Every structure is written in C-alpha cells, then in structure tokens.
Amino acid sequence: MKITPLGAAGGEVTGSCYLVQTKSARVLVDCGLFQGDQRVDVLNRASLSVKNLDAVLITHGHLDHTGRLPLLARANYSGPVFATPATIEMSALILRDSAHIQTQDVERVNRKRERAAEPPVEPLYTAAHTEQIIERFKAVPYQEAVTVAPGIKAIWHEAGHMLGSASIQLIVDDEGKKKRVVFSGDLGPRSAPILKCYEPFKQADMVFLESTYGDRDHRPFGETVEEFKAIVKQAVNAGGKILVPTFAVGRAQLLMLLLSQMFRKKEVRPFPIFLDSPMAIAATNIYEHHHELFDDEMLKYVEQKPVTDDLKTLTLCATAEDSKKINDQPGPCLVMAGAGMCNAGRILHHLKANLWKPETHVVIVGYQGEGSLGRQLVDGKKLVSIFGEKIAVKAQVHTLGGFSAHAGQTDLLAWFDVIAPCKPRVVLTHGENSPRQILAEQIQQRFGGKVLLPNLNEVILL
After folding, report:
1. Same domain, 301 and 349
2. What CATH number corresponds to the domain at position 262?
3. Are 122 and 11 in a shared domain?
C-alpha cells in the first residue's frame, strides 16, 4: 500500500492532496489548490493523473482542500467525489467563486498580453469544469462506514474546523490484511463556538496529522471575545466606523453571533451592521440549513431566539450598489467585507474611504499573508497604497489572534492522544517546516516512536 502527498508537504501548508494506492484501487483524499506566491501556479498546473482513479474523498470545503477538483473534470474524471452534505454545499459555493475569480484574473492578464503582442493564457479551469465536478459529489453521513473503492471503506468523523468538516479513516483490505489510515484534515480548536468539537478516531496503523499551528497555542478564545466587545463599545461610543476584513466562511458567522450576544445581553445599543459579501451571505444561509452540526450551546441559544431577531439592524449587501451605499452611512456602524487578507474585494473600497480618519477602527480577525495589505496594517505601516493611491493610516488597527479555526498545539496533541495507544506511524503535513518539526518533537517526547515529515510527492509505504 502506497500513500503519496501531492500537496501540503515539504513545509507547504496549502494544496492538500493524498494519493492512496493498493493492488486493487486508487483513491485521492482531498484535492486542494496551492495558494500563495507566484510559484504556486506551476504547482497547480502540474497534471493530476486520473487514470484508474476510483474515488475522491473530501475532508472539508476550503479551497486548499478542494480547489483542484475541477482539474479532475478537465481531465475527464467521471467517478464519485464523497463528502458530507454541508461540505458539498460549501465546496460548490467556494469552487464557483474560485472559477469566477480565475476567469476575471485571466481576462485582465490577457488584456495586458494582447497590448504586448504576447499570446493569451488560459485559466486553470472554467465554470463548466466546476459544474462538471460538482455533479460528481456524493453525500456521506458521519460515523458510518461507506464503501468508496474496491477493498476500501471510509468513515467521516467531526473535525470541528468548519461547517461539514471531517477527519477520515480508511479501512483498507490490502491483500488479505486490514489496515486503517487516518487523515485528520484540518482540526478546529476545542474552545470555538457554533460547531461541535472534533471527534478523534481510536484506531489507526498510520495517521496523517495537520501541523499548521504545531508550534504554539492561540490566545484564549474568551479573552479575544472580551477584547472584540471592548473595541465595539469604544467605537460605538465615539461614533466611529468599524471595518472588519472578513473571511466569508466561518469568521463572518462567528462575528454575527458575537454581535447577536452583545445585543441580546444589552451590552451595547443596537447599531447598523453591514455584511458586504455575497459569498458570506450565501455561506450564512448554508449554516441555517445545518443546525444538526451545531454544538449544544449554540442549539440552546438559537432555540431561545433566532440570531436574526437580535440583528434587526443587519443589512445584507448583495450587489455593488448596496456596497457603495455604505459610504453614505455615518458612524457608528460595523462593516464586514472580503477579502479577509485585504488583498482584493470590497473591503479595499471601505479602507480607502476610511483608513485616513482617526475615528475609524479596523479589526483584523484572521491570518494576514506576507505582503498583503492586511499584513501592512498589522505591522503598523503609516502609509499604504490602495488602487494606486497613497492613503494615510490614521485609523486604530486592532489585531485579534484568538479567532483561528485551526487547533493549536495543545488541541492537536489532545486529538492525537486518543489514537496514540495504537502506536500508529505518524506523518505530519499541512504545516511550515518549523511548526511541524516542533510538533514532531512533542509527539516523540510524549508518545515515543518516529514521526515522518514527508516532502512533496514522496511515496510512503504501509
């Protein structure tokens, strides 16, 4: 039995994809897009062989776990793509957005190439390829063994990372021997609200464990919530605008819950809130369809009163015209808009219009990539460029580090602790070199055994 990481290995965090091969089957676990600097385009365009591929299994809907799926359709893959129902809905939303962005990007690039008398380039995939792969999705339940390929069954367990996320256990009949391989997928922190906590597997011969934050823990969630509330109260009392660069799936829904709690408990008087993201609006609707994935505390909260009853001052901005009207809105108000790293999207227009005003508050609630506008704001830069115009940063910039959807080191080790008595071989992926090396040392010290840190395309034998 062979397992080959085709992404998220060798210190790479994105592009999660594993090829599992036995004598009688070939299966992919995840098929994610590489994200980051210019070199990732080469990695994304490297061919994925669909020859004799029996099935694809998806842990969750984020682009770095699903974004290369349309390439399989482009290569005429016609087999099933197994995922939980919520993951199917989230994946469809995210993949359609990805295809749209790629088409726009290529059109812009080709206009420049035409002026330079250079040949045009093609997008990685089109909307048609995306629709073809969405048609291949097949829903699976949590907790039940599903036959996915000859000699291979799979079980999905809650991962607590995003709506519909899962860890996957493969039960493989390999030449008469039963072997169990577990892929953690991305694990969520145990303290996060809304979703159920992760549920570890108890048996495995080999474990592929993510290591995104293998070197540290996040700031306690409760402390981060209190800081967020204090910022909101300060801005409301001063009549300022609050701008929140927001990831559409997960972070936007969390912030709306926190604002709902503030209004319900009368911690602050209701004020205008704008969700300025068509994708976040669609993702929120998917959350409403899947209350069965909420934890007990969240279920009790929405049974007392729907969140929408608290958020009477919430405006959903689906169109560009809706977004432009926010400029006429005086403070206090709060605007959630994408993109989460301030590298594109509607948040740029709001920042351009308000960064230079001292009464503005910018609240950073997620990771900001190197070189992004969001990172410049976090680093305290006093002058930034937006749409080619220099903008003075006089707004108050707040960085909240405890809202991550990824488990920190303590939670990663707690997940592994449940399966450790089996003494499985451990393979650490989905992490930069330093975090996964530190996590490897922690695992070896606490549980013994060797930990493998594979490179991209390195074949692992079981």
Report:
1. yes
2. 3.40.50.10890
3. yes
Q: Whole-prediction pTM value?
A: 0.94
Q: How far apart are CA 393 and CA 377, in angstroms?
A: 8
Please tell me what DSSP assigns to residue 356: T
Q: Whole-angstrom Cα distance, residue 414 to residue 442?
A: 12
Is 209 in the same domain as 247?
no
Look up the CATH number of the domain holding residue 434.
3.60.15.10
> What domain range includes position 325?
221-399
Tell me how far apart the alpha carbons of residues 42 and 38 are, in angstroms, rounded to a whole number.
8
Residues 249-253 have a mean pLDDT of: 94
Burial environment of residue 328 by CB neighbours within 10 A (0 to 12, 13 to 18, 19 or more):
exposed
Say whether 120 sits in a helix, a strand or coil.
coil
Query: Do 372 and 284 share a structural domain?
Result: yes
Phi, psi of 300 (to 5 degrees): -65, -40
- The share of the chain scoring above pLDDT 70, in percent, equals 100
Cα 69 from Cα 85, distance rounded (Å): 17
Count of CB atoms within 10 A of residue 222's CB? Answer: 10
Going by the DSSP 8-state scheme, the letter that residue 213 receives in this structure is T
If DSSP codes are grouped into helix, strand and coil, which group holds residue 428? strand
Cβ burial, residue 153 (10 Å; 0-12/13-18/19+): middle
pLDDT at 233 over 90: yes
Residue pointed to by tokens 């994935």: 293
Among residues 78, 219, 242, 59, the alpha carbon closest in space to that of 155 is found at 59
Contact 412, 404 (CB under 8 A): no
Q: Are residues 30 and 170 in the same domain?
A: yes
Higher local confidence (pLDDT), 122 or 30: 30
- The residue assigned the tokens 């071989």 is 425
